[in-house]
Amino acid sequence: MGTAEGMVKAMRAFVGIAGRPNRITRAYAARHGSEFLRAAWCDMAVTEAARASDNADAVLPAGDRAYTVWHAEDFRKRDRWYAGTRANVDRARAGDVVFFDWGGSDGIGYIDHVGVVVRALGGGYVETIEGNTSDRCAVKRRHYSVIAGYGRPAYSGAGKPAPSKPAPGKPGGKAPAFPGRILRQPPIMSGNDVKTWQNRMRARGWKLAADGVYGPASEEVCRAFQREKGLTVDGEVGPKTWAAAWTARVT
């Protein structure tokens, strides 16, 4: 079994690779087909680093990945997913597999890019190594505002992480009365009750527009929040999910 340190070292060995095809895409294409020679290769870089550092079982729990959404789902299904709130990003560790949404959401379905955490820098920033950033592998500094979340691989000796919890902060306060209708989609719902819930989730650190429209982005945040709180994960804001948004502490 490999380690987080070995994973970061393997990613460092790729820094400076540019263009395509390159040795990362060639290695991946040799196993999965020539169509990958010139494909987007950020997750191929993570895959090849995992294999090179004996971390495939930890980093690739469902096998090789070139598609970032599926890779993030692999971690979520194993309870190793942390949404991209500022508090969570400040708790990131070397070797965590970090996923980005340039649109600024925490939704897995919106992920655009992936890399590996080198270290947390504080203030909502992490240092990463990423393949296929401007078509090269490079060291980057990223802010939580573009981080959808990260997966924590089961590295040797690391054990399973405790569930993600909010950091201490301002008391949650008393929840306003449940609006009387369950917020769900489809069809897309709108109204002041939606906006009230969205604003509360934003106060907790979730990246979500408070536009009063309960669509796919709101459902993604709802599901992630429900997983964090141990609630039934159905993507619907019912009485329990509504109350939990106020009774827990704000991150």
Task: Give a verbal description of the structure.
- It comes from Actinomadura fulvescens.
- This is CHAP domain-containing protein.
- InterPro entries: CHAP_dom (IPR007921), Papain-like_cys_pep_sf (IPR038765), Peptidoglycan-bd-like (IPR002477), PGBD-like_sf (IPR036365), PGBDSf (IPR036366).
- Pfam families: CHAP, PG_binding_1.
- By secondary structure, the protein is of the alpha+beta class.
- It folds into 2 domains: 148 residues, endopeptidase fold (from Nostoc punctiforme) (Alpha-Beta Complex); 87 residues, Muramoyl-pentapeptide Carboxypeptidase, domain 1 (Orthogonal Bundle), CATH 1.10.101.
- 33% of the residues lie in helices and 15% in strands.
- The strands form 2 sheets. A 6-stranded antiparallel β-sheet has the order 1-6-2-3-4-5.
- β3 and β4 form a beta hairpin.
- The longest helix has 14 residues.
- The protein is elongated and about 55 Å long.
- The protein starts with a helix and ends with a helix.
Keyphrases for this structure?
elongated, six-stranded antiparallel beta sheet, Muramoyl-pentapeptide Carboxypeptidase, domain 1, 15% strand, 33% helix, 9 helices, two-stranded antiparallel ribbon, 251 residues, endopeptidase fold (from Nostoc punctiforme), alpha+beta, single chain, 2 domains
Order of helices and strands: HHHHHEHEEEEEEHEHH
Task: Trace the largest sheet across and list its strands.
Answer: 1-6-2-3-4-5
Provide the domain count. Answer: 2
- Shape-level CATH architecture of the largest domain: Alpha-Beta Complex
Total E-strand runs: 8
Radius of gyration: 19 Å
Mean pLDDT: 90
Main structural class: alpha+beta
Tally of contiguous helical segments: 9
Helix percentage: 25-40%
User: What is the end-to-end distance?
Assistant: 35 Å
Largest sheet: 6 strands, antiparallel
Low-confidence runs: 162-171
Q: Approximately how much beta-strand content do the residues carry?
A: 15-25%
Name of the CATH first level of the largest domain = Alpha Beta
The CATH topology of the largest domain, please?
Answer: endopeptidase fold (from Nostoc punctiforme)
> Looking at the structure, what is the overall shape?
elongated
